[in-house]
């Protein structure tokens, strides 16, 4: 590829990143492969690659089958991390296995962690016990009663001494 009469070394990783729509990674790869390449020149080269690159296929490889609506493939790393309760590790493993964007990988892992519920049935109650629950007796002013009793007793003690 030529840019401003300069031959550029375009690594395969940059081409793959452009095909996946990961333009920042493509720019980084291009600059790593071409020391001294200015950021604006690398961006222009990546834009040119993106203009001539075929549209990226969905992750499933089937036309019209969007990966955001399908179950993402998961390897043993994702399942092992989820079994350990390591959410960040699961997201990282999923991104490495699928080249999925961070926000999408996070949403996928969060979706997998939700307990399955039957249609029409409410989800299980949280383990957190609410501070105030329906049917609790109003005890918010009990401290005022205690203060009043202590004040009366203090008054009685002072009156008997004086």
Which residue ranges are poorly predicted, with pLDDT under 50 across at least 5 consecutive positions?
56-71
Summarize the biggest pleated sheet. 2 strands, antiparallel
**What value does the average pLDDT take?**
75
Question: Strand sequence of the main sheet, in spatial order?
Answer: 1-2
What's the overall geometry? elongated
The helix content, as a percent range, equals 40-55%
With helices defined by DSSP (H or I, 4 residues minimum), what is the helix count?
7
What series of H and E elements makes up the topology?
EEHHHHHHH
Would you count the extended β strands for me?
2
The N- and C-terminal alpha carbons lie at a distance of: 102 Å
Strand content: under 5%
Task: Give a verbal description of the structure.
- There is one protein chain.
- It contains seven helices and two strands.
- A two-stranded antiparallel sheet has the order 1-2.
- It has 162 residues and is an all-alpha fold.
- It is elongated, with a radius of gyration of 31 Å.
- Among the domains are: 2-52, no CATH class; 76-113, no CATH class.
- Residues 56-71 have low confidence and may be disordered.
Tags for this model:
162 residues, mainly alpha, two-stranded antiparallel ribbon, 2% strand, elongated
Furnish the topology, listing elements before pairings:
Layout: E1 2-3, E2 6-7, H1 12-19, H2 23-33, H3 39-52, H4 76-84, H5 87-98, H6 102-113, H7 142-161
Antiparallel strand pairs: 1-2
Summarize it.
The protein is mainly α and about 160 residues long.
